[in-house]
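Sample intake — Response regulator
Collected from: Pseudoroseomonas ludipueritiae
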Amino acid sequence: MSALFSKPPAATVLVVDDEPFIRIVIAEALDGAGHFAIEAENADVAMDLLHADPGIDVLITDMHLLGSFNGQQLATKAYSIIPALKVIFMTGDCVTASRISKHPGPGDGVLVKPFRLEDLLRMVEACLKPL
């Protein structure tokens, strides 16, 4: 299919994780599902990208990030830049996942690592559905 007739991405998704392999696998799955994935290795880089591209639709972030602040703090700061942003948290810690899901605030979903890519893609699609 010609690039001239290619379908625009369903969503622009920022993936933030300090583990390169995780970022790459998630980004490739998102791209394969028709989304446009942008990668950041920490919250500081993610903030730069959020400021540079206010068209980001979904933020997928690990809760425990190296750098200045964690995933929940990143989400709070990201909402101040893009109020309509959807956020999906990832964590390998079941206690953290339980705490996030029980407290209202920034976040549209929580995935406990390891998770299936199909579950991540379903969560992204759910975030994008109009209310």
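Post-analysis note: The chain has one domain: 9-125.
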